[in-house]
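Researcher: Next entry in the queue.
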Amino acid sequence: MTQQYDARYDDAARARLVVEPPKRVDAPIREPFERDRARVVHAAASRRLAAKTQVVGPQTDDFVRNRLTHSLEVAQVARDLARALGCHPDITETAALAHDLGHPPFGHNGERALAEHAVECGGFEGNAQTLRLLTRLESKTFDADGRSVGLNLTRATLDACTKYPWTRDRAEAPQGVHGDGSPRLVVKFGVYDDDRPVFDWMRQGVTGTEQCLEAQVMDLADDVAYSVHDVEDGIVAGKIDLTALDRPALWERVREWYLPQSSDDELDDVLAGLRTQGSWPTTPYDGSRRAMAALKNLTSDLIGRFCGAVQEATFAAGDGPFVRYDARLAVPQRTRLEIGVLKGIAAHYVMSTDDRVELMARQRELLAELVEAMLAQGPDSLDQPFADDWRAAADDAARQRVVIDQVASLGDASAVARHRSLT
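Model: Structure for this entry, 423 residues:
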């Protein structure tokens, strides 16, 4: 099965920055993209995702999703859609597993705090940090000069992991909000200036800022997963009742955060369409096994609804092959509206509460103080790999980047504990 997909990806797509010798003859036979997936699964950065906020902190409840469980769900959606379209499922799944590796403690809220303290060293952005992890910080392979090249993934896989394939100076002004409800105040870009060499190698032969198809699939799978699962989490937490939505206030939130041009009539029509889904609830959630099963069927049906619509539209838009730069993913406007309405439901009933806004302010203050403490105390406050980077840094900007790398690597609880010990 994998050879069927591999035939559509040439030697350049399978190339690695550092050429690797053949594996032992007695080792399991795996294709290059299968090896990429295994490397991300076994990466330390993947394990750390379990301790990082998705929407609410991972210590708040046994049920809520964290960055790791979210990434696993995105990977499943991405793999199934990739298989249906005919692009490589291993590449797309790996991109989904890796898409949040660069996120710091406290999700997008933490990203905002680090961006404000990284201005002088080139900024901070979770997706640019993901590329840095995959190609430098997550050690597995070193080049002939003794420099880490990270996991040494193939060109096609690295490209699929790059959600924003452009530099900071080409980024558009941020607008709207993130999936966790925090405002978009950080410009979105995919590479720091000192990581340009590997980025340029990865994008060899590509002009402009177009995403490869596999990255588009990963991006959509991320959007679908958190739009559906945030609603599921809110229902189980008792904050959302899909049978009793306050539409006037809800539509104001939807326009404020996601769909500014949509009228009440249009949003009413979209919600009416979603309610035609056979598994849409007609009674409030009561926590029983039957209610849990019904809710799981709803989430499954909505994911299938969105992905099926995209698959049909993509096939209708072109003949393929649907790989890399030979095709574009087609997302119907109706599907975008339906996803936006679900996001708005979670935003209105879960993410806009006063206690959550106050908590996010405290989290940003904690990370700011942690960065300042590490800059003041130097390598003794850093883990060994980052202490080594500090000693090798040529100037203050480089040392600041090291501290940002260190703080971004921490989980929520580790950031709190490190802050307590250093301040």
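Model: The first helix runs from residue 2 to 6.
Researcher: Noted, moving on.
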